[in-house]
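Sync notes, pocket subgroup
Present: LS, DG
LS reminded everyone that the earlier model was apo-only. Rerun requested with nicotinamide-adenine-dinucleotide included. Inputs:
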Amino acid sequence: MRIGVYGLGYVGAVTVGCLAELGHKVIGVDVADHKVASVLAGEAPVVEPGLNEFLARHVADGKITATTDGKGTATDVDVIMLAVGTPSTPSGGIDPQYLMAVARQTGEGLRDNPRPFVTVMSRSTSLPEVHEALIAELEAASGRVLGESLGYACHPEFLRETTAISDFFDPPVIVFGADDPQTFQQCRDLYPGIDAPVVEVGVGEAAMVKYAANCFHAAKVTFANEMGELCRTFGIDSRTVMEIFCQDDKLNISAKYLRPGNPFGGSCLPKDLRAILDVARDKAVNVPMLSGALLSNQNQIDSLAERVLVDRPTRVAVIGLSFKEGTDDLREAPMVAVVERLLGKGVDVSIFDAELAVEDLTGANATFALTSVPHLADLVSRELADVLDNADVVIINHRLAAITDWTDVTLDSGTKIMDLCSTPGLASHPGYEGIYWNRTDGADHIALA
Ligand SMILES: NC(=O)c1ccc[n+]([C@@H]2O[C@H](COP(=O)([O-])OP(=O)(O)OC[C@H]3O[C@@H](n4cnc5c(N)ncnc54)[C@H](O)[C@@H]3O)[C@@H](O)[C@H]2O)c1
């Protein structure tokens, strides 16, 4: 393909060199004359190990050229890649001015591009709303229609400076976010020979994958350092602790605990987090991320209760009371707190929990449950149909292993369903609401190409 790469900074310069190495014809574009001159001389405009070699080789063989003419470049390319900066505004937001300027320029150039379909891919990190604004600007400036003659893809970049070239050729995942099949088709032709999982999603989801990754990386570093500070205070070597922690790739370094849904609870997580926060306070160690976790979890419980109460329901059905399916452990179960709140507002609550027999609860479990909800036994029924009967809202906290297809379960079309666990077969219900997702097709819309 003939690809125009806009922005010859850390991302753009690497992209130019690596795309040429894959066999594409690449035109690097930048407003900075010295960066263009540097690329034309076969030299990297940024410090990145290995990049000089690629640029020198492919400027010499004619696969790479560079220019400051952004509009002119757009008149003769198959794909436009945006790699301009997205710096912070004073309040911390994204300053989209460089992206918008390139959208205008390339859009105008696209008017004179004879190709019936040209895709613009953004590698710059930006928020979903910025992508929407970019698409509108591109359509207005080019006179083309998205999905008909213009493609747009959010194609987040995961490379790390200093290992950018090996990251380019061996990415953990390749993500394309677009909304039409022609764009996805053009995206697929970008990386011949690169063996990596390719994920095709919507523009917004792709944009947020990048933010999720960077927020998570930031959270990981902060977590390790907060643990480090605690260990240091106790006279313990945090390197040993975290080395062992990292060896657990079942629970710690894994996909576990990383799916949005119900807040955390149970007999260990809140208790142990509180213990660490208590000792940190005692020893004057500042661990804002860990204390934030407890606060954030409480906010999630409160906001769930608010979202249920907002419609002023008379009767609410709770499917699954314990903190996770398959146990009758109610200690610090978030749903117990939600039920307590609903009862306090005079709501009639009915509960189905496959493992729960209130009369069998003992010890701390019984104490916690019955202190929170003294008449719990009166609210629990063994019959799912009875619990669902006449409910204005159904909170699905357990998927219920015994139910393979929720479409078989009779639910009134006016009932609001608050799904906390991405329950299969529920999304088509008219009153469906995911706790942290709006799309009714849930995760099923992800296509692994
Ligand atoms: N640096 C990284 O490791 C990294 C990794 C992943 C994603 N990103 C994202 O990629 C984007 C680019 O990052 P970067 O570090 O390469 O930025 P950078 O500041 O190094 O480079 C941006 C380039 O864009 C050029 N530019 C500005 N306006 C232009 C225009 N109208 N036409 C052509 N060129 C123009 C600038 O002159 C500059 O050379 C950002 O959104 C960043 O968040 C960066």
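DG: The longest strand covers residues 2-6.
LS: The chain has three domains: 2-203, 213-296, 304-444.
Action: DG to write up.
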